[in-house]
Amino acid sequence: MNYKNIFKIIGFLLMVLCFLELLCLAYCGRSGVWESSAARAFSTSAMVSGCTALICFLFGGRNKQDLLRKEAIAVVGLGWIICSVFGAMPYMFCEPGLSPVDSFFESMSGFTTTGASVMADLSIYPKELLLWRSLTQWLGGMGILVLFVALLSSFRIGSRAIFLHESSAKEIGGVANRTGKIATKLWSLYLTVTIICFAGFKILGMSWYDAVCHTFSTVSTGGFSPHSESIAYFNSPAIEAWTIVMMVACSINFILYAWLIRGRWDRWRDDEESKVFLIILMVATVVVGVNLSMFELEDSWLRSFRVAAFQVVALMSGTGFVTADFDAWPPLSNVLLLLLMICGGCAGSTSGGVKLSRWILFIKSIKAQVNAEFRPNLVTHLKLNGRPVSDALRIGTLFFVGLSGITVLLATLTVTLLEPQMDFVSSISAVLATLFNIGPGLGTVGPTSNFSSLAPYTKLLLSFLMAVGRLEFYAIFVLFFPSLWKKY
C-alpha cells in the first residue's frame, strides 16, 4: 500500500474544501458581517481543513508512483468519508449549531447528494450555512474525485483507477487511456448545465441567493433548499416547470450530451435507458395524477397533475424537492413513489437509485434465463443499447441488485430495532431514501418532517447507507475487508 499517494490525494480534497469554505467566508462580508457566528465557523473550518491538507502533502512528499487498484479504492472510499467529516465543521461551529452526529449526517447528506436533513426550521440558520449545504451537493453531484482526475490527470497518480471506482463515472464505457479527457468533458458539461439552470431561475424571478442555492441542488439532483418549504416556497408553476426540465436533464447520461454536441444523434436514438426513463416518468405522472384526481386531494385535476409531475420527477431523479405532502397521498401513489426511488435515473448522470440500465439488464437476464429453461438449445446474446453485454457485466448486475435487496432488508431490520416507535413504512422508506440518495421518505421521515427525531446511532447508520449508495457498495464495503486488499 502506497500511503504517500493516498495522503497526497486526501490533501488535495481537503484543499478544495478549504477553498470552498473560504468562498462562504467571503460571502459573509456581503453586508459586513465578519463578526457573525457563520464567519467564525467558516474561518475556523477553513483553517483546520487547510492545515490538515498541508500535513497530508508533507506526508505525501514528491512521490509520483502510479496508484494500484487497492489504493484507488481506498482513496475513493476514504475520500468521501473524510470530506464529510471535515465538511461537518461549519454545522457545528455556527449558531445555532448542530451536534457532531447531526453535523456529520447533514454533511454526508450534502456530499452524497441525498438531501435528507436534520435541520427543521431553516429560517433560524445563517444564509452562509445554507449556501454551504447546497455547495456541498453541487461538488458531490459530478463527484469531487472526478474533479480531481480532471484537474490532475497529467500526473502519474493512477487517475484511471480512481475514475473507474467513482460511481459518477463508473458506468461510462470506453474510458481506457482517456480518463482525463472524459473527466474534463464531464465537468465542462456539468458547469454548462449549471450556468443554464441558474440563468433559468434568474429569468423566472428568483433572487441571486435563491437561484445559486437551487441551481446547485437541482443540477446535482441533491434537493437541499434554503427554505423549509422547498420549491413550494415560490408557489410558481413556471419555476416548478423549469425545475422539472433540469431534473430530467441531469438524470440522463451526461455523455449523451457530448455525443449530441458532436452531432451523433444516433447515440440518442439507440440509447434504451433514456427512452425507458422518459416513458416511466410519463406513465407514472399519469397514474399518480389520475389517482389524486379520483380522491380529490387537490383543488383541481390540473393541480393534481402539476404536483404529480413534480414529485414523480423529483423522487425518481433522486432530487427530493417537495411541492406537496405526498405522504398524505393514496396508497397506490405512495407505493409507486417508493418504486421510483429504487429505480433511479440513468447511469452516468447525477441521479440516485439503482440506475435504470441495471434494471433493464436485470430484466433481460431473467427473461433469457426463463427462455433457457424451456428452450435449452436456444443461444441468447444479451444486448444493451444495441451492443453485446459480457457475462461479467451481466453477473455483476445480478449481484448488485441482489446486494441492494439484502442491504435494504438488513438495514430496515436494524432501523426497526433502533427505532421501536417507528412504523414499518417509515423505517423502510428511511432506508430507501438514504441508501438510494433520494432525501425525504414517508411517515416519520416524510416531506413535512425530517430525520432530526431519530436516535444518534440510527443517524450514523443512515449516514453510512448514504455513502454506500453514493459509491455503489463496493468502494465502501471493501474498506471493511482488509484481506481483500492483498489480492489486488
Task: Describe the protein in words.
By secondary structure, the protein is an all-alpha fold. It folds into two domains: 3-249, no CATH class; 374-485. Helix content is 65%, strand content 1%. The chain contains 22 helices and two strands. A two-stranded antiparallel ribbon has the order 1-2. A hairpin with a 2-residue loop joins β1 and β2. The longest helix is centred in the last third of the chain and has 28 residues, at 391-418. The protein is globular, with a radius of gyration of 22 Å. The termini are close together. The relative contact order is 0.10. Mean pLDDT is 86; it is low at 151-159 and 171-177.
Give short descriptive properties of this protein.
488 residues, mainly alpha, two-stranded antiparallel ribbon, 65% helix, 1% strand, globular
